[in-house]
Amino acid sequence: MLGVAPDDQVLEIGCGPGAAVSLVCDQLDNGQIIAIDRSATAIKRASERNADHVSSGKAVLHHLDLAALHLPGRRFDKVFAVNVSTFWLRPTGPEWSVVKEHLHGHGVLHLFYDTPGAGRARQVAEAVRAALSRHGFSSTTTFSASELLFGVRAQLSG
Asked: Concatenated DSSP letters for 65-93?
């Protein structure tokens, strides 16, 4: 669903143990993924899992919260997060500012969620879309056949 191109610059928010980092790196040639997580344990596991990608420079992992990310002049083609509630559960002014600052004008934000029921999925999807709209994004939502999994694809409006 990300459609990673070989030269893409990618940011993963909340990388956990690094499974997606591995999958993205397999698609990159000259591109790079920066993955962040606020859990030191998660970054340690992701670093171990992706030691070859880290040593090659395809993957860079940081132990930090999204609000603390500051990479002056760095822009990403794709930014994504899996099961990160920051974008719908609480007010997130600083986090939205960081995403907007680091997303290319043509860049795409992907937010993926796995919910315990179809009704909950619809509620979360509505909350995510509303938050995106409040912060200047237009979005589309795609549900899996089970309707428990969904992804939201968003771009900055205008």
From this structure: -GGG---TT--EEEEEEES-THHHHS--H
- What predicted TM-score, i.e. pTM, was given to this entire model? 0.94
CA 109, CA 114: separation in Å to the nearest integer? 17
Domains of the chain as residue ranges with CATH: 7-64 (3.40.50.150), 82-158 (no CATH)
Tokens of 25: 């790196």
Q: How many CB atoms lie within 10 A of CB 49?
A: 19
Tell me the CA end-to-end span of the chain in Å, nearest whole number. Answer: 23
Token look-up 């992992």 returns 61
Alpha helices in the chain (DSSP H): 19-25, 40-49, 51-56, 86-89, 93-102, 118-134
- pLDDT tens, position by position, 82-107: 999 888 776 668 899 999 999 999 99
Q: How far apart are CA 72 and CA 123, in angstroms?
A: 35
